[in-house]
Input
Amino acid sequence: MPPAAEFRVHGEAMRTVTLRVGELARWPSHRAEVTFSCLTSGTQHHVFTGPLLRDVLTTFCPGVRTARRKERSRLLVAVTGRDCHQAVVAWAETDPEFGNAPILLAATLDGRSLESGGCQLVVPGDACGARYVSSVTGIWIGAHAFAGPTRDPRDTATGDAPPAGPAWPAHSGS
Output
């Protein structure tokens, strides 16, 4: 049997951790029956199981749980696969106070373990398979400081610029 695939979870205000697909069993598993269109393979029908992406990320980035809604609404999650394919989901898509989408880090595909090949990002509800990243090698979470509206430099009012630094307190544990 080939060695288990690993992936790295990293980002702003958190320690970097490396996980194996088998370690995803420490979180509650969810099942998603999905149908999506793939440009190269046509319509796909699959059953995936694995934990919710938000459950995994909040374990290693606990400040997300306590951040205010506006702070959470600007967070992005970028997922990279072994083939360098990348997809981005907004944290708000997964957050129960916003979209509450059951986005998974799948450990199985159609009943087969993904242990040797790597877990898969599963975005139920997407009609297109472009955000179904297979053989995940990295997951990054952080906030992007978008350019705000231009303002008159003579205006001394504050608030146009996004806050500097991470959107939540730094993780103090190991």
